[in-house]
Write a structure and sequence with these properties.
This protein has nine helices and five strands, in the order H-H-H-E-H-E-H-H-H-E-H-H-E-E. It is α/β, with parallel strands linked by helices and about 180 residues long.
Length: about 180
């Protein structure tokens, strides 16, 4: 889009200059068009400057938990985390059982079985222990992204299931559990 925008600027300027040179009524149209085009860009800049639009990819707590993960876990540790694009595990450089499904699907990767196992583990149901052993998951990250993901699929985290695992890192609403 930006390339089209840059390439079209000279043509828009040429069109405005051509309209300007026609007659007095079209001079008014050209001036109004120039003002509208300028204010449209200024509106976008204003929304960013006044923080009306604030797209944060990672929360402060996610950055803090990622730092703790780097310090307290092995570089090749396998984590269970929410399958989102903005998981704190991505900041830590550690391996994930599953990341963002849209990205996996765009590469033709069949992730359905892993996603089902991921849901079983977070729900703490009968298949959870089997799934943990199946993938040799070493750590489980629980946080806002997990809660949001599970809410979308009508599940909740089973806190009783996670009580048997020691907490190795914690920041805000994030907890990292070590799977024994």
């Amino acid at each position: 889009m930006i390339y089209w925008f840059v390439a079209s600027i000279p043509f828009v300027a040429l069109a405005l200059a051509w309209i300007w040179n026609k007659n007095i009524i079209l001079k008014f149209v050209a001036a109004v068009s120039l003002i509208v085009l300028t204010l449209a860009g200024a509106l976008d800049v204003w929304r960013v400057v006044t923080k009306q639009i604030d797209y944060g990819v990672f929360q402060t707590d996610a950055i803090q938990i990622a730092e703790q993960i780097k310090q307290k876990t092995a570089p090749n540790a396998l984590f269970l985390n929410a399958p989102t694009y903005n998981t704190a595990i991505a900041l830590s450089g550690r391996r994930s059982l599953m990341r963002y499904p849209g990205h996996l699907a765009s590469h033709g990767i069949n992730f359905a079985e892993r996603e089902a196992d991921l849901k079983h583990i977070y729900a703490g149901d009968a298949a959870a222990e089997t799934a943990l052993k199946k993938y040799n998951i070493e750590y489980i990250l629980v946080g806002p992204e997990v809660e949001n993901y599970l809410k979308q699929v009508n599940l909740t985290i089973n806190p009783t299931f996670f009580q048997k695992f020691p907490v190795v890192a914690e920041a805000g609403r994030y907890k990292v559990y070590k799977v024994n």
